[in-house]
Amino acid sequence: MTTLLDGKVAVITGGAQGIGLAIAERFVAEGAKVVLGDLNIEALDAAVDALGGTDVAVGVRCDVTSSEQVQALVDEAVAAFGALDVMVNNAGITRDATMRKMTEEDFDLVVAVHLKGTWNGTRAAAAHMREHGGGAIVNMSSISGKVGLLGQTNYSAAKAGIVGLTKAAAKEVAHLGVRINAIAPGLIRTAMTEAMPERIWESKMAEIPMGRAGEPSEIASVALFLASDLSSYMTGTLTEVTGGRHL
Predict the structure, then answer these.
(1) Which DSSP state fits 214?
(2) Which residues fall within 8 angstroms of residue 104, CB to CB, at 6 or more apart?
(3) What is the dihedral of CA 169, 239, 32, 134, to 10 degrees?
(4) pTM
(5) Each residue of 108-130: b (16+ CB within 10 Å) or e?
(6) Distances, alpha carbon 141 to alpha carbons 100, 131, 168, 204, in Å
(7) Structural domain spans, the chain
(8) Closest by CA position to 91, among listed 42, 242, 69, 83
(9) Class of the domain covering 9-238
(10) Alpha-carbon torsion (144, 220, 87, 43), positive or negative
(11) E strands of the chain, at which residues?
């Protein structure tokens, strides 16, 4: 049986846990080999083992704010598996605080990880793909980039920026066979979101018409769609995966 990513090679930043690992699991199940970038070495090792070992997965310590480290991540995919067909720019952090209390350092760090990190990954991947017949890039935005969430001036700004980056970059490389699309998840059940105070969680749940949080696997399914030929005539788009929140 032919799988959707049979013989493809994918790089996933923030790939050792949460949504990134769920995407890696789905990609491997669909025939891909994956290279995971993450800062957590122990989590990387565990993820590679869980995915089936080094025949199908490689872990690389990568700080996405460094263009050199992101380039090394892309180079590792080519060295290990001979190609780069899919890039998923997923790495992210939060440093939530009201604007009055947020430090300049926490603003800069969140923007650097999300926005510059996505630019680094998009730039490095597109440079390779345009010379090798094309590819698909998937960038992770957020519903926070659409509506702006309290205490997230840094995160909302970065996630909105990713949408603009995705659209502008998509126009530059579409004629070269490189497609670039973005996903905007809503409330997804991960270790990061489950650490929220109960009252915050409940207030967010009340905004969701489907009445539940999403699962990482549900983001992975959309990433698979955008990474595969199922979305062959799509580029520069933003797909909301929110259970109907903030329509």
Answers:
(1) B
(2) none
(3) -30
(4) 0.97
(5) eebbbbbbbbbbbbbbbbbebbb
(6) 24, 27, 15, 18
(7) 9-238
(8) 69
(9) alpha beta
(10) positive
(11) 9-13, 33-38, 57-61, 86-89, 135-140, 178-185, 238-241
Name residue, tokens 């409330």.
Answer: 187
Residue 42 one-letter amino acid: E
Packing angle between helix 117-129 and helix 67-81, nearest 10 degrees?
40
pLDDT confidence of residue 192: 77
So which residues are the catalytic ones?
155
* Distance in angstroms (rounded) separating the CA atoms of residues 179 and 221: 17
Letter string b/e over residues 192-201, b meaning 16 or more CB atoms within 10 A of that residue's CB? ebeeeeeeeb
- What tokens were used for 12? 């996933």
Contacts of residue 43, defined as CB under 8 A and 6 or more positions apart, other chains included, come to 16, 17
Interatomic CA distance for residues 3 and 26, integer angstroms: 11
Can you give the pLDDT of all 247 residues of the chain as single tens digits? 679 999 999 999 999 999 999 999 999 999 999 999 999 999 999 999 999 999 999 999 999 999 999 999 999 999 999 999 999 999 999 999 999 999 999 999 999 999 999 999 999 999 999 999 999 999 999 999 999 999 999 999 999 999 999 999 999 999 999 999 999 999 999 887 888 888 989 999 999 999 999 999 999 999 999 999 999 999 999 999 999 999 8
Least Cα distance to 88 among 34, 44, 52 occurs for 34
